[in-house]
Amino acid sequence: MVQGIINIGSNSIRLAIYKIDDSQLTVLLNKKHSSSLASYIKKEKMLQAGIDKTCQAISSFKTLLETFHVTNISAFATTALRNISNSAMVITQIMQKTGVSVTVLSGTEETALDLFGATYAMQNQNGLLLDIGGASTELVLYENGRIVNSVNLSIGSLNAYEQYVQYLLPNKKEQKMIKNAVLVELAQITDFAPRPQTFICGMGGLIRATGRINISLFNLSMNTAEIKVSNMKKMIKLLENDEENELLSSETLKVLLKTVPGRIETIVPGLIILHTLSKYFKNERIVVSKSGIREGYLYKNILTVKKQTAQTISPIEAKNESNYAAS
Q1: Strands, DSSP E only, in 107-194?
Q2: Which InterPro entries match (predicted)?
Q3: Is the CB of residue 259 less than 8 Å from the CB of residue 205?
């Protein structure tokens, strides 16, 4: 079975094509449109330009899927469509213009799929899950693979950039403003207190991009899945904008273009958020998960349903289906 999954997020719209054999996933293709949909939201409504951009991205993905003869397509959206008042209109336009039906996940559904997707292959079933999106940051405390508590901070890599950064990369003053904004939100959380040194699992495109910079700058193995907090601080310093000169150094530009060409504006604000959270929770490292919400959605909403359907087929129906497939 081959399955296409489209994920509409605040920072980007992504397509992943998976080959599925006995519940084992193999990624055949990953594509991304850097949509920055959060910047198209005004007064809690998505502007028509943002809707058009979303439809264009999905149409291009659908054409690609048709080229590879992939007929199983599922699409879902998170904060990008959940937190707007004209969500129903956006979904209707997407369906009319692309033929793709989009499911908008609730915050609870998103959290559960994030956790399942990020940790299903990990041995450690206790910890703190971090996902830094474009418009928000999700924190999930879990024990024995189950959610104990979760919160969403209203600061993400994209809205932090738009609110606090004047040029391409933040200078020291702007970095401090982003850090303080995170700390202000954390101070308002009274019932979320993971123990110091709790295992931290980072997921999502921003944290995976940070992992690539970490590998590149410190000459680490390509399989390195750990980011030290001390390395985060060094990365922020290296990618810091000069107070008096908004131009990037050639070395900084080279690093960004090599590792995160689609995240040049948002990577440092996201890195500051990640570093601030790691220090706040008194941790010295995070482990980067290569899987996430798309894999969680695939396992929970497609493979589980497919398995349940197969279990409910009677022996006669199964025989008929087998004969039909062989004919």
Answers
A1: 127-132, 137-143, 146-153
A2: ATPase_NBD (IPR043129), GppA/Ppx_hydrolase (IPR050273), Ppx_GppA_N (IPR003695)
A3: no
Residue 58, classed as helix, strand or coil, is: helix
Q: What are phi and psi of 68, to 5 degrees?
A: -95, 10
- DSSP element (H, E) containing 8: strand 2-8
Give me the pLDDT at residue 17, please: 95
Structure tokens at 212: 């690539």
pLDDT in tens, 161-209: 999 999 888 999 999 999 999 999 999 988 887 776 678 999 988 999 9
Indicate the pairing of strand 200-203 with strand 137-143.
unpaired
CB-based contact 271:211 (threshold 8 Å)? no
Longest CA span, the chain: 77
Q: Which long-range contacts (CB under 8 A, 24 or more apart) does 262-265 make?
A: 262/12, 262/32, 262/34, 263/11, 263/34, 263/157, 263/205, 263/206, 263/209, 264/168, 265/158, 265/161, 265/165, 265/168
Structure letter (DSSP) for residue 71: -
- In this prediction the pTM is 0.76
Give residue-wise pLDDT tens across range 73-110.
999 999 889 989 999 999 999 999 999 999 999 988 98
What CA–CA distance (Å, rounded) separates 311 from 103?
A: 26
Q: Which percentage of the chain shows pLDDT scores above 90? A: 53
d(CA 181, CA 277): 12
Based on the domain organization, do 63 and 125 belong to the same domain?
Answer: no
Q: Of the candidates 105, 127, 153, which is a domain's last residue?
A: 105
Q: Which domain holds residue 86?
A: 2-105
| C-alpha distances out from residue 14 to 6, 126, 127, 133, 293, Å | 6, 29, 27, 13, 11
Q: Where are the alpha helices (DSSP H) in 165-204?
A: 172-187
Q: What is the pLDDT of residues 255-308, one digit of tens each?
A: 888 888 888 889 999 999 999 999 998 889 999 998 889 999 988 887 765 545
Which of 56, 85, 105 is a domain's end point? 105
Q: Identify residue 243 by its one-letter amino acid code.
A: E
